[in-house]
């Protein structure tokens, strides 16, 4: 699909959409006025698709963090217009304070919250099941199983939100977010509303216990109403079989492939709604079968309801799932997982998809070796190289100086060859964690490393806390101008992007926090960088070093001609003789061992950052 087609009015031909793109289209068809969120894979590409499309007639933007995004979306909704807010599962933790409160107060214009979970942690962090938040907040939640449903559910969610007066959650997972299929489009609504907001303290504030309790009652009533309005999204199919399956989200597709392969016709309950669950349909299914398999990724939320309702059925029903096995609480599902369950129920007659050895070899040959390290020419490589050198020059062993890490490209400093970042908790935690180590009485230097996007997201409160207490920590802010790890999204400090917007300078924020020991340096200037780090780490007060250089990928995209460094064969003594610092110390993906045993620089990927030139003892680069 050409991204520009996402807003097309031609609905006569289907288009190939991923789950993210389909949801973006659904928002367009619903007449959304604002789409905002914070980048976090696998949800990032919904907003990316809209930003790359031609003018759509509504506002699309990245917010500073998920909480702010949800609050901005709430303001649009309370003014009577429609808004969509996007985030990954970790971002829902950040937005949860606002989310739970708004769930009680309700909405005016449709407000849809899109959350993407990541079973098997393909994109890092935790295997969080966001369905728990729906239960915690008594929030309606929809779980599409395909890109077509992602589009249809999103479009419908705005109407539902306005009908029940509450935000509606849509949950998909990594596999659905990235899966593509041919999608049938609908007409684009043209919604023109005059923004307004009523004066109603009892609804829009938490005006004492009585008001809060009433808001809770109203929220529960809205959830019950949502269940009635969406009963059609939970289709129950009864057959002659005494075996039944309950699926949530994308697991429906795995079941369909497995039963089609084996020509089975079990009873099925396909759940398109995660909250509230259709208890009467579950009981109806249980009353017709002897064995039920619950297919849901991560937590046994549906299964727990099934186990509770089983007691209301007049005959015993075996429940196969996670509580008593064999299904796992971790990882994601696939067809093989479902077929293994079928094998346990039906025995050896169950067929598995056949994959030839030749095809397997071809697939393996296509795999690309990807190192979990900084990109070629990344300024962060220079920063961590300089940091390790500084610690050594100050007379410390590597294991004697705690370096806290943070979310984003910065955390790649934990991997070889640097192994510099000791910790990773959540956005902005590096600074406050470092403060805690000093409070505990750690005498040696404690260094916090944090990226620019993460600093703006959640690092500023921690900086203020450390500055106010006068904690002697060193904070290195690695500023590459972009939220790079999630796909080069701009933020409030992105200089090449912000011609028409106010650029927020990190140094000004740091100085406004009362920190006087602030230095800004280009990390590629190693001979200047190391003394600055030595001074900062040796300081008896809180100090900040801003390591500033643009993300090389973005810089290279704007450069018209490629430039690369070369190894001088006559000066390179060979990797069997020297300490090969160019490879061991830097871990640059563009440097490898040539056929002659000497270092070789790949000219197609080298960005001429010059770091290998600095570390080579023989001047061979």
Automatic annotation (TrEMBL):
Return the Pfam families for the record: POR_N, TPP_enzyme_C
Chemical reaction(s) catalysed:
indole-3-pyruvate + 2 oxidized [2Fe-2S]-[ferredoxin] + CoA = (indol-3-yl)acetyl-CoA + 2 reduced [2Fe-2S]-[ferredoxin] + CO2 + H(+)
Q: Per the UniProt record, which EC number(s) apply here? A: 1.2.7.8
Matching CDD domains = TPP_IOR_alpha (cd02008), TPP_PYR_PFOR_IOR-alpha_like (cd07034)
User: Which GO terms of the molecular function aspect are on file?
Assistant: 4 iron, 4 sulfur cluster binding; indolepyruvate ferredoxin oxidoreductase activity; metal ion binding; thiamine pyrophosphate binding
- Cofactor(s) the protein needs: [4Fe-4S] cluster
Which InterPro entries does the record associate with it? 4Fe4S_Fe-S-bd, HACL1-like, IorA, Pyrv_Fd/Flavodoxin_OxRdtase_N, THDP-binding, TPP_enzyme_TPP-bd, Transketo_C/PFOR_II
What are the entry keywords? 4Fe-4S, Electron transport, Iron, Iron-sulfur, Metal-binding, Oxidoreductase, Transport
4Fe-4S ferredoxin-type domain location, by residue? 597-621
Function according to Swiss-Prot or TrEMBL = Catalyzes the ferredoxin-dependent oxidative decarboxylation of arylpyruvates.
Q: How does it assemble?
A: Heterodimer of the IorA and IorB subunits.
Q: Would you tell me the protein name for this molecule?
A: Indolepyruvate oxidoreductase subunit IorA
Query: What organism does the UniProt record list as the source?
Result: marine sediment metagenome
């Amino acid at each position: 699909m050409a991204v520009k087609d996402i807003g097309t009015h031609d609905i006569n031909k289907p288009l190939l959409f991923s789950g993210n793109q389909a949801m973006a289209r659904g928002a367009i068809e619903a007449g959304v006025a604002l789409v905002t969120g914070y980048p976090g894979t696998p949800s990032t590409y919904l907003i990316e698709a809209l930003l790359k499309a031609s003018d759509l007639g509504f506002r699309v933007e990245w917010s500073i963090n998920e909480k702010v995004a949800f609050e901005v979306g709430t303001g649009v909704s309370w003014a009577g217009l429609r808004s969509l807010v996007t985030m990954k599962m970790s971002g829902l933790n950040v937005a949860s304070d606002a989310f739970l409160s708004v769930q009680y107060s309700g909405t005016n214009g449709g407000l849809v919250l899109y959350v993407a979970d990541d079973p098997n942690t393909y994109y890092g962090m935790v295997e969080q099941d966001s369905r728990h938040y729906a239960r915690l907040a008594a929030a309606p939640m929809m779980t599409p199983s395909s890109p077509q449903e992602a589009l249809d559910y999103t479009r419908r969610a705005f109407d539902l939100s306005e009908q029940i007066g509450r935000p509606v959650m849509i949950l998909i997972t990594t596999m659905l977010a990235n899966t593509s299929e041919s999608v049938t489009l609908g007409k684009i609504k043209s919604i023109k509303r005059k923004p307004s907001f009523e004066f109603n303290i009892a609804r829009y504030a938490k005006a004492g216990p009585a008001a809060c309790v009433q808001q809770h009652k109203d929220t529960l009533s809205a959830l019950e109403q949502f269940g009635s309005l969406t009963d059609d999204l939970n289709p129950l199919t009864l057959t002659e079989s005494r075996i039944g399956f309950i699926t949530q989200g994308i697991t429906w597709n795995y079941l369909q492939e497995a039963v089609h392969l084996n020509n089975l016709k079990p009873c099925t309950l396909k759940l398109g709604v995660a909250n509230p669950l259709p208890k009467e349909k579950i009981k109806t299914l249980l009353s017709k079968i002897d064995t039920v398999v619950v297919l849901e990724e991560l937590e046994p939320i549906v299964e727990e309801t099934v186990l509770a309702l089983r007691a209301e059925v007049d005959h015993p029903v075996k429940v196969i799932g996670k509580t008593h096995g064999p299904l796992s609480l971790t990882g994601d599902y696939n067809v093989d997982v479902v077929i293994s369950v079928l094998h346990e129920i039906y025995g050896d007659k169950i067929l598995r998809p056949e994959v030839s050895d030749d095809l397997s070899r071809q697939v393996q040959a296509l795999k690309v070796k990807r190192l979990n390290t900084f990109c070629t020419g990344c300024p962060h490589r220079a920063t961590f190289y300089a940091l390790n050198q500084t610690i050594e020059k100050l007379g410390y062993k590597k294991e004697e100086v705690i370096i806290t890490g943070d979310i984003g490209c910065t955390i790649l400093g934990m991997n070889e060859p640097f192994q510099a970042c000791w910790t990773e908790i959540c956005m902005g935690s590096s600074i406050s964690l470092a403060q805690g180590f000093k409070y505990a009485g750690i005498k040696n230097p404690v260094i916090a490393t944090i990226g620019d996007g993460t600093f703006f997201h959640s690092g500023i409160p921690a900086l203020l806390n450390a500055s106010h207490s006068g904690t002697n920590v060193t904070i290195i802010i690695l500023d590459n101008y972009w939220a790079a790890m999630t796909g080069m999204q701009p933020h409030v400090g992105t200089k090449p992007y912000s011609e028409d917007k106010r650029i927020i300078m990190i140094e000004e924020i740091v100085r406004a926090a009362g920190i006087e020991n602030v230095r800004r340096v280009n990390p590629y200037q190693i001979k200047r960088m190391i003394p600055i780090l030595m001074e900062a780490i040796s300081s008896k007060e809180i100090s900040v070093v801003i390591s500033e250089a643009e993300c090389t990928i973005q810089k290279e995209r704007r450069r018209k001609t490629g430039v690369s460094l070369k190894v001088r064969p006559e000066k390179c003594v060979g990797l069997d003789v020297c300490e090969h610092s160019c490879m061991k110390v830097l871990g640059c993906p563009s440097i490898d061992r040539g056929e002659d045993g000497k270092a070789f620089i790949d000219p197609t990927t080298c960005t001429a950052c010059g770091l290998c030139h600095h570390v080579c003892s023989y001047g061979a680069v």
